[in-house]
Records
---
Amino acid sequence: MILQQIVNGISIGAVYALIAVGYSLVYSVLNFSNFAHGDVLMLGAYIGFFSLMLLKVPFPLAIAMAMVGAGIIAMIIEKIAYRPLRLRRAPLLYFMISAMGMSIFLQNFTIVTIGPNFRTYPDIFPVKPFAVGNLSIGRLDLVILIATVIVLLLLTWLVYKTRIGIAIQAAAYNMRVASLMGINPDLIATLVFLLAGASAGIGGVLFGMKYTVYPWMGVLTIKAFVAAVVGGLGSLPGAVVGAFVLGITETFAAAYISSAFRDLFSYLLMTIIIVARPAGLMGTVAQEKA
Amino acid sequence: MTHLLECKDLHVKYGGVHALRGISLHVDEGEIVTIIGANGAGKSTLLNAISAIVPISSGEILYEGQPLPRKAHQVVARGIAQVPEGRQVFANLTVKDNLKIGAFLRRDAQGVAADLERVYRIFPRLRERENQYAGSLSGGEQQMLVIGRGLMSHPRLMLMDEPSLGLAPMLVQEIFKVIREINREGTTLLLVEQNAHKALAIAHRAYVLETGEIIREGYGQDLLKDPAVQEAYLGARRTARQK
Ligand SMILES: Nc1ncnc2c1ncn2[C@@H]1O[C@H](COP(=O)(O)OP(=O)(O)OP(=O)(O)O)[C@@H](O)[C@H]1O
Ligand SMILES: [Mg+2]
């Protein structure tokens, strides 16, 4: 049943990928890891949940609302928690502290306003899986995979093929020289957070559907962060590769060793990769930062 | 008359380092003005202050008589491009994308296409390498690329920071030819150079910068013959004595 495990691993890897690209995108341009990213995902999960339950919108619209909502929230976080530091050229440590503060605030704000209880998405897709030969593929897993592929393709097109995407890449390489080209660093930061937030938004909905929604679900994204680092922090293809490697490792460890050892084995592998290749799997281009 | 660019009593400090100590200079439309000076004199600091990537502590910078905005991208929008020192290409982008990003603020697709052709005509090597990552170019090719990238914004005023540094003599000739050419085509230039001889030879006017202060100014040709300048920057005691 190796194939079955691969299918399961790809499904969970896909959600990690949606989250990991956000970490990587922000890091590539601003050189720090946005540890409030998980909380943006959490808020996206709630937006999707309440859109479905209270507003009763169709599923695709709920996803769209989660993406837009989370994107805007991420933009606001950048504006109030990071931009003032960036303009004052504060040391990186301050960004980390600010991110942690934001994260704790968002979690507690959610607990106070929405409540600490776990919420379960309604079953939008029939629970009964597809059977393809011996394989059984969950319908939700299939939706997750398709949605991920669409989002990643869109993101890739945006970053690698459009004028503004090339500006993002230029800013990622050297913000100072990019500004000499007429690129506004504030605009790039806003955009990058919007993109990262939107991917986290859909990631949150899919995560919430696969598991549950609760105020501190953002901590789970630490795995996606590790995946992004393993892939080569700052590299989009790296984030995706790292996420799938992590997803598949996890399912294999759970299936063939013990689910209690799942995290132990996957993190061990991740640590080995990092120690052997500090730049990550895809971190080839030396990133020169100014 | 108002100058195209004018700096008045400009001071820049990096923490305790007082890098510019009351610089006043001007550049008129159509000129090539050069700044010469030893390492650490403050030449790059001056260009970066104009480009607004370094904050000024006092003094003012006027462009067409108006204060220049204090954000780098807004300065570019006003028509001032900088070719920074040290071959700062975007190594993660192709040659073509590097050039296109130079035209980031422009909306006239036809003008951009024409300027791309112009850059390729000036530096045929870049056309051959257009789909290659800039990081894989040789040092000289990277220098051609940063100059080409600067031209792509079709600036009214171009600030160039040591464009000939570390290039083979043949290429240095070539770069100075290009500088003359783009000036004839209508771009005003403020040129920082350590190759004082060549810079003074092509400049209309020049300023000599020493530890953050302007110690001499005048026509390029005159400074070229100035014994003190020769001694300090042209390494030419012999010609000084002959004179
Ligand atoms: N970011 C900085 N922080 C602190 N000091 C700086 C900084 N940049 C430049 N300096 C100092 O300011 C002075 C002027 O430097 P600048 O780079 O402008 O010199 P330069 O004339 O361009 O020299 P070079 O010919 O070597 O390029 C030097 O003493 C330098 O050490
Ligand atoms: Mg310099």
---
Amino acid sequence: MATTIESPRAPHTARRSRGVNWEKWGWIYMRASGVVLLVLIFGHLFVNLLVGDGIKAIDFAFVGGKWSDPFWQVWDTLMLWLAMIHGGNGMRTIVNDYATKATTRKVLLGAILVAVVAMIVLGTLVIYTFDPCPAGSPADLLPSFCATR
Amino acid sequence: MAINTAGTMTPKRPAGTLYRGREGMWSWVLHRITGVAIFFFLLVHILDTSMVRISPEAYNAVISTYQNPIMGLGETALVAAIVYHAFNGIRIILIDLWSKGAKYQRVMFWVVIGLWVVTMLGFAPRHLINVFSHVGGA
Ligand code: HEM
Ligand code: HEM
């Protein structure tokens, strides 16, 4: 069988010239967010797992202490948004690779979108509506600074 | 091997190709699997963290499940996955953007594995000591 093999670099469709090239920005986003996420996640894991007693020290009071500091609020917000969008976009690539039926693909892509939006909204609300000293809770479960309020 | 129409031999399996079954393929397989695993962990993790909005008791109950030895091993696996995905992600970026990246992709894969081993040697003992030294309360 004689098959002509096109030059690998020959464009097979006409080059698009109008409109935003979303795939290109997605590609750039995966790389830019990846570099930032490396710093944010390694920092998160270091502070929560390696400092002091690590995971044994994590409880409500620990979170209360961290989220009373705008630095960690911003850190976690960035990590939340960047990671969910990076992960969601990565999952989209994988679904596009393996889901061959149009309906399956649409359902899966829709599920990813819903999950990403829901987690970003929930996570952001949790960080900014968080009360480290909820009224009526036993004092020994709360951060030490609550006693002085 | 089968004799094809051109009269030459065609291997049944494309063995010894530049990509298939070599560092390039396995680095990609691992990157994909770790990426999916981290994504699903993150969904659960945002839900468990949101327990801080229910009550201190609810949060402490959920997070205490992360402190038992079996979960301790799971966390070690999770960190192993993240460290690989992160370092290999940098390798992907270098392949794309550094002029010599593609040429050194195979060397860089082994650098990723080396850095991964070093990072895990730093992380795993300390985390596992934290997890196992208080087994049974205290
Ligand atoms: C720690 C820092 C991270 C770095 C440096 C990083 C880097 C990358 C890079 C460069 C890609 C390739 C994108 C492409 O081929 O266009 C990628 C893909 C991906 N990442 Fe990450 N990433 C990181 C964290 C994460 C996190 C936290 C998640 C999950 C929430 C995640 C999930 C994924 C997924 C699902 C893919 C798609 C894999 C594929 O197409 O085979 N990554 N990452
Ligand atoms: C076993 C390892 C982990 C532990 C013990 C842990 C622990 C925690 C804790 C205690 C918090 C509360 C706030 C804070 O401390 O900053 C938190 C929040 C958060 N963590 Fe982790 N974490 C782990 C791994 C990860 C990983 C791998 C990621 C990223 C892929 C991540 C992403 C986040 C995000 C986005 C938040 C904010 C959630 C929200 O907005 O409600 N964590 N984590």
